[in-house]
Design brief:
Eight copies of one chain form a homooctamer. By secondary structure, chain A is of the alpha/beta class. Helices cover 46% and strands 16% of the residues of chain A. Chain A has one domain (7-154): Rossmann fold. Chain A has helices at 17-29, 45-57, 73-78, 98-105, 120-135, 139-154; strands at residues 7-11, 34-38, 62-68, 85-90, 114-115. In chain A, strands 2-1-3-4-5 form a five-stranded parallel sheet. The termini of chain A are far apart.
Chain lengths: 155, 155, 155, 155, 155, 155, 155, 155
Amino acid sequence: MKNELQVAVLMGSESDRETMDVCLQELEKLGVAAELEVHSAHRQPKRTVEYVEGALQRGAKVFIAGAGMAAALPGFVASLTTKPVIGVPLASGLPGGIDALYSIAQMPPGVPVAAVAVGKAGARNAAILAAEILALSDETIAKRLEEMRAEWRRK
Amino acid sequence: MKNELQVAVLMGSESDRETMDVCLQELEKLGVAAELEVHSAHRQPKRTVEYVEGALQRGAKVFIAGAGMAAALPGFVASLTTKPVIGVPLASGLPGGIDALYSIAQMPPGVPVAAVAVGKAGARNAAILAAEILALSDETIAKRLEEMRAEWRRK
Amino acid sequence: MKNELQVAVLMGSESDRETMDVCLQELEKLGVAAELEVHSAHRQPKRTVEYVEGALQRGAKVFIAGAGMAAALPGFVASLTTKPVIGVPLASGLPGGIDALYSIAQMPPGVPVAAVAVGKAGARNAAILAAEILALSDETIAKRLEEMRAEWRRK
Amino acid sequence: MKNELQVAVLMGSESDRETMDVCLQELEKLGVAAELEVHSAHRQPKRTVEYVEGALQRGAKVFIAGAGMAAALPGFVASLTTKPVIGVPLASGLPGGIDALYSIAQMPPGVPVAAVAVGKAGARNAAILAAEILALSDETIAKRLEEMRAEWRRK
Amino acid sequence: MKNELQVAVLMGSESDRETMDVCLQELEKLGVAAELEVHSAHRQPKRTVEYVEGALQRGAKVFIAGAGMAAALPGFVASLTTKPVIGVPLASGLPGGIDALYSIAQMPPGVPVAAVAVGKAGARNAAILAAEILALSDETIAKRLEEMRAEWRRK
Amino acid sequence: MKNELQVAVLMGSESDRETMDVCLQELEKLGVAAELEVHSAHRQPKRTVEYVEGALQRGAKVFIAGAGMAAALPGFVASLTTKPVIGVPLASGLPGGIDALYSIAQMPPGVPVAAVAVGKAGARNAAILAAEILALSDETIAKRLEEMRAEWRRK
Amino acid sequence: MKNELQVAVLMGSESDRETMDVCLQELEKLGVAAELEVHSAHRQPKRTVEYVEGALQRGAKVFIAGAGMAAALPGFVASLTTKPVIGVPLASGLPGGIDALYSIAQMPPGVPVAAVAVGKAGARNAAILAAEILALSDETIAKRLEEMRAEWRRK
Amino acid sequence: MKNELQVAVLMGSESDRETMDVCLQELEKLGVAAELEVHSAHRQPKRTVEYVEGALQRGAKVFIAGAGMAAALPGFVASLTTKPVIGVPLASGLPGGIDALYSIAQMPPGVPVAAVAVGKAGARNAAILAAEILALSDETIAKRLEEMRAEWRRK
């Protein structure tokens, strides 16, 4: 039965939606129960804390957070849970999102964030990575991932 | 009477002490009541929240936070208060502290952090900037700042 | 009564107006008495000196300077006053305004400039930071800042 | 019973051992069954393929690969399996390991790698991230992670 | 007789075709027998191995591989053959293709790749470099290269 | 007769002396009348203005200014005179002096500074460039420059 | 009488003309006798040598060379003469012309090039810098430069 | 018979010898007839032209040039011959040799240089790449390269 939340996807701003929708769509294609919400670590820290706690209660096993510029959101989520957190750097500040890439990849020792590529490529890979993590204990998702790879081989 | 805290200085790790002591010493030289503590936004977010709230109650008017790598600390403090927050990027990750500089300077619109230079130059300037802010309503500090400038001119 | 100048906003070139207007509008929204003028540290150093001196006489407590490329303007203003100076890096030279960001953030020890993010995000944050500084001794502005934060929380 | 391999840790060169030992030790501290081997994607691709296949048969659920310069190893492992792969950028080429960071983070869409920070901070975080992933279906590891966080809070 | 393949040109994605066509056209202008195919080191490693082996049997003496982002393709080809491999960095990730440039140029000792400029300039130069290599034992190509230089001198 | 000053060399800090002495020595070797002084654009703007005005009266035809970090000194001198100003970026802030290089090279249109390489290579080249400028109307220096080149050819 | 060439302006490619025309027009406005030609250090080294030698015979006192990417042209001209050479980095390769900026600014000790800003700002400043150099022994140009500055002050 | 020169290795400065000796030793290990000389494109362009012409007459089929900073040497050699030229970026200027890497990799269309990694890794790979090129028409070298790869596989 899959009516629980598996992956909670957050983004720092409404303007990140086009990119992070790529993530949500890929999760749906892989059969992962996911949702996407706007949350700001800096503007609404308490609301973000409450959302993360609620998502955990609803069953969230993996968090994905997309953010640009100082991109504190993934690390902020990681400070609130020991579930795996994946960070998607977005290019809303310095060119190419280099500021967000550094902010997300360069987490201090103790609180890891899994950084993926900047922008849509990363948004899609975040979804696949989350699916790979869930697939360790979910055979349906594991099968979907294998099918995706098999399809590439056929092309 | 100056038995209240004026500037609360935080740093992300014990290993930042040598650099951030430059900040504390400059504050003392300028006659500013300050203290320096280690706080991690990622490892101990609740303890940091409590410290900031306590510092505000004890009179803190300006916050200075030194941090390296993803350097979330200054922005985290800024999310908790509308007092001015100064961020000192420290070079504990990428060379020159470029990761911390981007993380601190590139704050998203709404929650400002005042970034200064990387390392000891920035630690010292953070202290002077805090004094300049306090000097707007504190004539003793204003006078000390003027004396410092006058001394430079004499040299 | 608020007929005195509180924040003097300078920009290095007429072409910076669109970005720096964001700063001026945010200041007005926060109830801060501000004005915006074009001044070039390199082309008209004396005129800039005179403007800064005049602004101080008219009550300016905080300076904001937006500049691109070598971006000397914020540091030049900081060399003329012990009032807090906020620098907004603008992207008119190297991509993303990385040249202006380094020029503004990397001030040598002794003469601080508070660097904010590149471009409009920084222009808006410079205004809020200036308001935070003024709010330490101005309850009206302090109240407006609290209202702004409260509004975010409601959203 | 824990006599199966849980995390296979690879590194591109014998000279990476000091850094990657930090990863292995953290895994051991967290009660994760792990091993560390030198494998070169470029010099010995077939031997690496065989190792990955063998590790999968011995139960490996997560792969960690540390590499410097072009840092192809994490992506190469990711091309061979749908298990989660974590990449640790190492600073053996350009200063700060920026070349390895880009090579590992900027994976093309379809084959994700979870990038962590450059060097020892990243090596340690890779171990914790792997433990977080395993903890989704392993209560002993989950408990250890919670204890680690609780210990931080006490400090 | 020139019905054998001389240069096999690979690219990581169909979206690289416009740039890599510049390479193919320059090879044809220089009288080099070449072909261009899409191959992904990460998605279809086995298919790429088979293509490289087939190309070698059909006479390929030089390989050119264009790739963006982590740009593993040129190094992957180089791990499969001792024929010269030329890598063309493409700008599909970070601005200017800086990620691909580092990934291709910073090959570890033992398995060289000849990096050229990012994008179309590099695509064209890869073709000329391949022709220069072939010209060492092919007088027709050597003559064409000399003619190209002579034509420049006349202009 | 050569008892007039030809080249005034400034540096931002006493700690720059070792590098800028390379410049002074090269100027002396080339027979150029030069002097080296510490001047801070930010700490002592008026003293710097007076020095530049005095140097002009004593005959200075070219200015060389070495500075690190925000490196405003060369541009500040250029704002005070229409004589050629050469800027030497020094590595006292970000690694390699990249901050100073950008600050010096990226002067806005209207007030040029001639940037040379970072550090001692640049300090030496600044001297030779100044000599090349003076040599346009000074045959003794022109001859020395030709001799230096002739000596290289003999080696 | 001013029928001699004073400043020879070279550019690496016909596609640089729009930017380098800014340089030529500024030189004309300042009353400097100048000309602009396309020359490639890499494609036509001998033709470039002949042009430089001819320009010297026709009276050229300063050279300006605009180039993108590896941007060898300014350094190549500097290797042929002891007259001052000004290099204008152009953005035809990496974003912002960072490749050209490094190639032009980072000349090895012994053969200086005066680097200015990337693109049109630099093209214009190269002209003013050349005029400043010529003005040391040309009162007409000196007067024009003073007038330009005076005009700025009036604005 | 192998008494002819096969690979001419140049370096821009005596201080590059320790790095470029790695290249020469690797060439010797692979049975390639090579020699290493100091040549400066900027200081001694004519002497460099004569050396390249002489090397071509003595049979040189491939050129390798190591250079730091503006690193014009590889491109200068490439402008003189249609033989393949390999460029080794050296870290004598900006950190990591990033200036030399850009100068060597970003050659304009028409005159290719094969860039390898910065420093000793690149020096060694330049030798192997040169051997791979020669091996296309030299079975002894081809065999040595195959043996080197076979040895890796055994390890």
